[in-house]
Design goal:
Blueprint (H helix, E strand, L loop, with lengths): L3 H24 L59 E4 L3 E6 L4 E13 L2 E9 L7 E8 L12 E2 L3 E3 L6 E9 L4 E10 L4 E10 L5 E11 L20 E6 L3 E6 L9 E5 L2 E5 L3 E6 L5 E9 L6 E7 L3 E3 L4 E12 L5 H4 L13 H18 L2 H15 L1 H16 L1 H11 L3 H15 L7 H20 L23 H15 L8 H18 L4 H27 L2
Parallel strand pairs: 1-7
Antiparallel strand pairs: 1-2, 2-3, 3-4, 5-11, 6-8, 8-9, 9-10, 10-20, 11-18, 11-19, 12-13, 12-15, 14-17, 15-16, 16-20, 17-18
Helix pairs in contact: 1-8, 1-10, 3-4, 3-8, 4-11, 5-11, 6-7, 8-11, 9-10, 9-11
Length: about 575
């Protein structure tokens, strides 16, 4: 009975936590299609619907409103000639498509991340130019005078760029000229091994008058209503999906897409950034540090189909006639690599969202990554992590198993009490408690080690769920993906075998027939539950169960041998 209660506690708590997550997904607030009507001069830049192919006629509501300027002159409608073909840039980690209209980044393929382990040649497409999950990154300049925005046509020098095997960076220049004498070169700089892109707007003013304007950066995407990623077989459904804004005082502020229309975000922040986050990957605009930018959100629905936007607008800059000014910002398009993100921008690591178990998950991942740097296999890193955790709580579990071993020796006396008191369960329980007190045995000694393991178990679940470093990581033999379930259910069965062998060492005197049946059923019940869990999580629990069995067997034999 001593081992039944902690196992029941563990099972009930884990199941309660997972049921709560399911309830949140099934009955929590869901995105609803919204129709947002906005005036053309106040709308934040939303692209034309995918069906519109004539990019030479951009929507008026597709451009943010320009800040007032001393030069009360409308934006020039003269557009430079550009090719309709996308500008393609290939580095060692990215394959990016840039639309000459606006210099908008409309596609981004992550070359080191297969979309599916069964088809490694098909890579993750983080940005998409159209379709129900359109996701693009736009930038431009705002002014009452002539200025190119993301609807203006730029002229590329070439449509194909490659980093090659020797270069450390490649620059992609796009030019725009206005008849007034304002010229802008938009340059995107790609670097080897980097997922961040430096975006520069170099403006030369030969208009004969002062030019005043700002830089803006924005991410926009459409979201499928009632988006569902499919239960425990795809636990990525629980990862945060939405917008994120960072500021030094508020840190990371998460905003669900469905909240944008009812509660738009608007703040002026220095040293901040904006992002759109999904499972394992994200994109972010990072303005220059120390520069105060205006951050905001909007929903734009030119045809009733909502597009969600997060944007940043820089302070207005004055450029005298004959002078030149360079606006700059950085665009990150890639994975949530925890060791690298803080080097890109302060706080960017907050996009890795472990939820309420961050206090356990972050140090757990840190330790796991250190072990991985030695063994170079995430599966063996999990096994060694389990051994370290077991050693950390060795004394605690040793006391538990010593108590259980003593109870095992008391089983004949417990059977005698059962015969003596028959069906008088109250008197029998009193007699057993008195005997436990005399023999210094704690019948609930097994609860504490299990309760300690529960937060570690759930924290590791979140590490496997959210850490892109473990995404599709192989172990050995048939386990080729630690973040997916065991395809042949070997680990759940192995865990059940360890549990059954542990039961043989567990004292069962004093249990009624129903309790015995529950205890006998538990290995099967846990195996069914673990069959849908990530293999890495079941590997941890099965390793822990095997070590616990060995430890309990050794202590039990030692105490029995001592008489």
């Amino acid at each position: 009975m001593a081992n039944l209660r902690p196992m029941l506690i563990m099972g009930l708590l884990v199941l309660a936590y997972l049921m709560w997550m399911e309830w949140q997904k099934d009955y929590g607030p869901r995105p609803q299609p919204q129709v947002v009507t906005q005036e053309a001069d106040t709308a934040i830049g939303m692209p034309a619907v995918p069906e519109v192919q004539d990019k030479s006629v951009p929507s008026a509501g597709d451009v943010p409103s320009a800040a007032p300027s001393p030069a009360d002159k409308p934006v020039s409608q003269e557009l430079s000639v550009a090719s309709d073909a996308l500008v393609t840039v290939t580095t060692d980690v990215l394959e990016v498509g840039i639309d000459p209209v606006g210099g908008t980044v409309v596609s981004a393929r992550l070359l080191n991340y297969p979309a599916n382990p069964d088809s490694p040649e098909i890579k993750v497409d983080l940005l998409k130019s159209d379709g129900p999950e359109m996701f693009i990154a736009q930038s431009g300049l705002l002014s009452r005078a002539a200025a190119p925005n993301h609807t203006s046509k730029f002229s590329p020098v070439s449509t194909q760029y490659s980093l090659g095997s020797t270069a450390d960076e490649v620059e992609v220049p796009l030019t725009w000229r206005d008849e007034s004498g304002v010229e802008v070169t938009k340059t995107l700089v790609f670097k080897r091994g980097k997922y961040e892109i430096e975006v520069k707007h170099s403006l030369t003013n030969r208009s004969g008058q002062k030019w005043t304007g700002s830089r803006y950066d924005q991410l926009q995407r459409s979201v499928i209503a009632d988006r569902d990623d499919g239960g425990f077989t795809n636990p990525g459904r629980y990862s945060f999906f939405g917008m994120g804004f960072y500021s030094p005082d508020e840190k990371f502020e998460k905003l669900d897409f469905e909240d944008v229309a009812s509660e738009p975000y608007k703040r002026n922040v220095a040293d901040g950034w904006l992002s759109m986050v999904q499972h394992y990957f994200f994109s972010a605009w990072i303005p220059p540090q120390s520069q105060v930018n205006s951050y905001s959100t909007e929903v734009y629905s030119p045809t009733g189909f909502p597009r969600y936007i997060a944007r940043a607008v820089s302070p207005a800059i004055e450029v005298a006639d004959g002078d030149r000014h360079e606006f700059s910002s950085r665009l990150y398009i890639g994975p949530k690599l925890q060791d690298d993100l803080d080097e890109v921008a302060p706080g960017l690591v907050y996009t890795v969202n472990y939820g309420i178990f961050t206090v356990f998950s972050k140090p757990l991942f840190w330790l796991l990554s250190k072990i991985h740097s030695v063994v170079n296999n995430w599966g063996w890193a999990i096994v060694l992590l389990t051994v370290l955790i077991k050693l950390l709580f060795f004394k605690l579990t040793e006391a538990q198993y010593r108590s259980m071993a003593r109870m095992r020796k008391l089983q004949p006396r417990i059977e005698q009490l059962k015969e003596r008191y028959g069906d008088d369960r109250q008197r029998m329980s009193q007699a057993m408690m008195e005997m436990y007190k005399t023999e210094k045995v704690n019948p609930l000694g097994g609860c504490l080690p299990i309760l300690v393991q529960i937060p570690i178990f759930i924290a590791l679940y979140w590490v496997l769920l959210e850490s892109v470093e473990l995404r599709q990581a192989p172990f050995i033999l048939w386990i080729d993906n630690l973040t997916a379930r065991d395809p042949y259910f070997v680990l759940p069965v192995l865990n059940a075998a360890f549990m059954m062998m542990t039961q043989r060492l567990t004292p069962t005197a004093g249990m009624d027939p129903m309790q015995r049946k529950i205890m006998q059923f538990m290995p099967i019940g846990f195996s069914v539950m673990f069959a849908f869990f990530p293999a890495g999580l079941v590997l941890y629990w099965a390793t822990n169960a095997g070590l616990s069995l060995a430890q309990q067997w050794y202590i039990t034999r030692k105490i029995e041998a001592a008489g």
